[in-house]
Amino acid sequence: MLLLAIASKGIAQKTALNVSNSSDYYKAIELYNNKAYAPAQKLFIATSEETPSNTTLKGNADYYDAMCAIKLGQDDANDKVLDFVKNHPYHNKKENAFLNVGNYYFANRKASHALRWYQKVNEKLLNQQEKDELNYKMGYCLLVSNYLKDSKERFKRLLGNPVYGNDARYYYGYIAYKQENFGEAEDNLSQLADDATYQSKANYYILDISFKAGRFDKSVQIGEKLLKSSKDKNERSQISKIIGESYFNLKEYEKAMPYLKKYKGKGGKWTNTDYYYLGYAYYKQKDYESAINNFNKIIGGTNKVAQNAYYHLGECYLELDKKVEALNAFKNASEMDFDSQITESSWLNYAKLSYDQGNPYKSVPEVLKEYLEKYPLSPETAGIKELLITSYLHQQDYTGALEYLNANKSPENEKLANEVSLYRGIQLFNEQKIVESNPFFYNATKAENTKTVNKANYWLAETSYLTGDYKNALTHFSLVSENEGVEFDQLDYNIAYTFFKVKKYPEAAKYFKSFLNKKVDDTDLNDDASNRLGDSYYASKNYTEAIEAYGKVIEEGGAGADYAQYQTGMSYGFLGKSDEKIANLQKVGNQYENSQLKDDALYQVANTFTSKGDSNSAQGSYNRLLKKHPKSSYVPNVLLRQGLLYYNSNNNNKALEKYKTVVSKFPNSPEARQAVTNVKNVYIDLGKVDEYANWVKNVKFVNVSNAELDDATFQSAENKFLDNNTQRAIAGFSDYLQRFPNGLNTLKANFYLAQSLSKVGKNDVAAPHYKYVTEQPKNEYTEESLAKLAQFYLDNDNWKNGIATLHKLENEANYPQNIVFAQSNLMKGYYESEEYVNAIKYAEKVLENPKVDKKVSEDANIIIARSSFKTNDYEMAREFFHEVGQSATGKLKAECLYYNAFFLNDEKAYEDSNQAVQNLIANYSNYKYWGVKSYVIMAKNYYALKDAYQATYILENIVKNFKQFPDVMEEAQNELNTIKNKEAKTNESVTKQN
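Given the sequence above, the corresponding structure tokens read:
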């Protein structure tokens, strides 16, 4: 009974538990149905935990727990479903679990998640309605997941299904469309043409299928009908594109254009092909400007469409006479091989335009030779060969012309080579390559043309003159049989100068007079000729004629008038007319404020007073020289002469004062040595030899006991120097300086040694000796030593020491040419040192000198132009680049044209700027740096003119082909990136740059 009672009590407890679990379960079901998933889940979990295993209730509770987890998006939701299936493999909700989870994800547009659960469903356990639903949903998920083949199979099962039939047919047709099975797609989609849901979409795909099948008439018909009903902006844009391209393919370009223009692109961007269609339509309508505006948006294309576009773009440019732009377009098309006929035609146009307009990428001859190599059998070959020779000459590539003519020998080519040699020689001469030009002038003397021979002899004479071979210069001047032409305007002048150089003064005078009688329109040149005529008479001791020649320059106040005035005074002196000499020399100081001859004139005036016995006037003139020109090289001599005047007037103390000043201020100078002797004589006259002995002990450069040996050693070396025995002179002076480092002749020995070393090319050894001379008090060798030392520093690009030496030369020079040398090189030195303000200052000094050589004044102008540009003074830079450009040739002309283009671009005169670039390219393309640099400006101009194609094509070619100019390449790359980033906003085919 006890056991029974206990058992009965256990049954009662189990029943109570089951009732309680069921109650919670049904409450949970109610919450679940009301979408209160969180509290429902708690009850389902409690029910499951309190219910024995292998019961239906526990299985149901686990099922709904998993469903709640799915609904609530819990991380372990999938695991709960799988656990349910695992723990309850025979539960009747197993398939429902997979299906319901899939449906949940499907409803929430998570196709890949849904597909994973649908694939777990055992379809055999589903009824037909559930199977149809599964096929539809799985088909859709497979479509979204891009499993087109499997998706299509699912939809195929539903074709004709009363519930899913139309949906399935649409997707089935759409998949066939995507698979480019257009016949099957059209068959299915056409059945939905009247379906309210799919009518619009189905007809759109039918439209596109018709277009892709080449049924353009039908595309137009369907498309125009669709446009009337379509409300979607993107769809209307796409339909317009198809209609436009259909008309295009039907060659009805006028009808195509409105539809093509209505296309809005993908995301607001067109592709290169879109621009091609509209551009070609305009081209066929002969609206070349509009065609260009579309073709030139095709950037970076490398396919058949792009090649066609660039070729027709070139044709459009030619129609509008824009040859430079056409050249780039044809070049681009010629670099592609998608259509061989277009490639060859593009090459021909590119070659001819290169000849006509110049080529920035390669020399014109290179382009023409490349065409001949590529198309040797072309009917255009003969014509291109003719262009090739003339292109060398037009581009001033005389080296290339001679190489070509010599490589293709024929009697005609040999004759032409002799003619071309003249121009190559002149080219080298203008580049200051005098010696290198000579062989070309000699070859030119073999020409058949008399004018060429005359010019060749003229230039041979010029080169001989400049190299110091005056005899040969006279020989070639004499061979000039005709003197018509610009070169020969100065023929008599040059011959006269050559005779003057060889000291044949009567002959020189004859040719100077002949030149002056021709009255060439060059005032400075005429003044110089008159002065040299006077010099010729002066050197021939025909002083009256000399005074007459100098008088013309003085009368006209021309260049060198102060020199003429000085020489007139000296001429009167040689005629024995001392008063006239003094009067004319005094005019140098009184009438020519900036003359470098004022100290010379004062010195000669004082000497003349001395010779007349007028010691007071002489002393007065000497004192004026010392006061006004304390750095004059005459100072030691003046002091010496003043001492002599005092000595002769028995004023020994004053004489000693002057002599001792020479010794203390100008030791080692010849004047100092003479002063020591004069001091000795004064003390002897005074009977004070002991005082002399005490004084002379403190004179470092005087060693009485060694004086004779000092003089003998120096004299030996000097004799070798005067005999032009340079090597022995070097040895002698070196020995002297080693034995007598502070000797009587140290100054002179250092100078002569430096001159000798310089003569044999040992400038680096000579420099310290020149430097020694310059560091002594001013003497007769100071000026030349400064000039030589400065040149040494310049040759070694030692601008720091060079500038310091040039400043000293500028301040201490007496010869005008040395002042010009100093100032002109100071302007260059400051420019090279990037001290642009000082560079301008010295360039202006050079230009203030009316006697300055033309080449030096041109250098000054270009220094001002470049320095002004560097300091952002564009107004002055432009003025001086323009000035230089008027007479510049070669590389300098190319530079001036570049800056002209730059300034025009800066003023937004883009078309004028392009003209300036084209002038540079057409005529100076050999100077690659400036040509390439100017092409960057041209690219900027084109982009400002809305021609993105020209801009990017030019910049891409610079980056690709001119790595030897890194500064230009970097500028081009930066500009290219900027343009492409802007264009990428409207052109889908353009890639944005970093």
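Residues 562 and 588 are 6 Å apart (CA to CA). Try to locate this feature in the token string yourself.
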